[in-house]
Amino acid sequence: MAYVDTHFHIWELDRFEYSWPTKNDKTLFKNFQIEDIEEAIKATPVKYAVFVQCLNNKPEEAKWVMELAKNHSIIKGVVAGLDLTSTDLTKVLDDMQKNQLFKGCRHILDFEDEKWITREDVFQGLKVLEDRGLTFDLLLRPHLLKYIPDLIRRLPKLKFVVDHIAKPYVKDGNMSPWKEEIAAIAEFPNVWCKISGLVNEGDLNNWKKEDFQPYVDHIIQCFGIGRCMYGSDWPVCSVAGCKYVDVYSLLNDLLPSLSDEDKEKLFKENGRMFYSLQL
User: Fold this and answer.
1) Which of 30, 210, 222, 228 stands the most exposed, by the fewest C-beta atoms within 10 Å?
2) Planar angle of CA 49, 190, 152, nearest 5 degrees
3) Is 107 in contact with 84 (CB distance < 8 Å)?
């Protein structure tokens, strides 16, 4: 087996100016480097992974990781933080697409006005991604889900993936309106979902597998196994006291009845297909 993690981060605090993590994030406010995740995955069948941006509007971050990939075969894809509203977007994408590891973009919406995703200049940037066959990671929280169907309806050929199952309020045991709104998004065939980041939405100090079962079951029911993929959200998962193997094992344990074929889809093939990875 050679599974794929579709969502990991690394950062070097003295390399770029990060808005997050901050000094108050004691678990995360230190360097996490590619060698660290290479060591962390050894206890699992995961062999390859996709880096996802930590910085908005910073192509240099993606270029740094793509350079690392020359000596670190774990890196099979890079999702960059680019300014989708820039008049230079096409030039930036021309440059980025010279490297086949560049797969698409994400934007951290927490740093923006709630309706940023509905802006026309943002739509125009996403349309450029669509025209180029690139992907877009949707980093959503439940209050943003209501804005997404109209956006997707206008971009029927853009490959979207919802990160972290849209961060439902697991700690509170609250499923609505997340349950209904994520189901509405799943009706669009060009939208996929990362089952990732679960532990950070539960009780950080006292989470248990059963807390996440109804949420994961609902995601599988809505998207089907063919549009779901595994992501570790390493090292952010360490905030909940998790090692890499804990996150991998959690998802594996939440889906005990998966056939070997479906497990291969969830942990490898779906990520490979969505991001067009060369494994």
Assistant:
1) 210
2) 115
3) yes
